[in-house]
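input
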Amino acid sequence: MSDRNWEAEMAKIDKQLASVSDEALLAESKAVVPAKAGGRTVAAPAVPAAARPSASASASASASAAQVVGAWRGWVKVAIAVGAAAGLMFWPWPAPCGGSLLGFTAATGAVALLGLWSAFGTWRHRLGLAHVASLLVVVWGLALGAREVLPRIGYATPTSDRSEGWSCPASSGIPSAAPVPR
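output
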């Protein structure tokens, strides 16, 4: 046997555990960590960060502050993406052909990309509701883009609002005869 004083060692551990609140121990406890001992795996409980003598309160406070800032940044990204998606509903110019169609189609692609940008941020910070909103923005942007693109590539039936061409019909160059007021 060893000549270690186990009573003194256990007293040190008890003193460290007594200095940490129960809530901190439960909140920061980790799963059982396997440890190798003599060629076989032995389950050894992980020591909570709060019970370690080297852990400081400022490190945990800065980690929680970083989580709060990350959550706010995630929600701001979602707000930008949702605002852009809502803005497509109020697109101010008709987009039947030409440059206005190209602008609207680019805007729908940009909204889908904004949705992806916010989805990555919300996934990283584990913001479930914000992530779902981001994915809905992606679907919205792709759906509006598909509504304009599909009739023009021959996949969907063209309508009076969405013709089958990308460019506007050329004018004949002859001005139309307007009645002259008397």
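quick obs: The longest helix spans residues 57-89.
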